[in-house]
Amino acid sequence: MRLTKSTDIALRIVMRLAVADDSANPTTREVAEVMGVQYTHAAKVVAQLQHLGVVVARRGRGGGLALAETGRPVSVGWLVRRLEGEGDVVDCEGDVPCPLAAACRLRRALRQAQEAFYASLDSLSVEDLVADPTGPVLLSLQLK
Hints:
Elements: H1 5-19, H2 28-35, H3 39-51, E1 55-58, E2 64-67, H4 76-84, H5 106-122, H6 126-129, H7 134-140
Antiparallel strand pairs: 1-2
């Protein structure tokens, strides 16, 4: 299974915010630059994370991004499910439906594999992702 670019960016942003100093809330542009992603992609992802209640974004002087109180203990599995959506790995009912749809065992097997993937992430929290050695590396990333 391959995660979308948006989910990858979201996880990196959440990890960076998890180690950020509480007094210095970085802007979306700063986080995008430090994490090596395009600003436009980062802005869309931040809006998604804000909608999920994982990130708090404040405008104006003293504004910026921060991990919400509920963001640190959130399950990575929960977050990835919300970002990726609950759809199947393959689209059997697409524009041209698969002729095997009525008798296919592959779709069920792929669904089970997808659930196993998510289940393996359920035991990890955002806080777990930024434990040593990752946290110090995230802190060492500076604006260019």
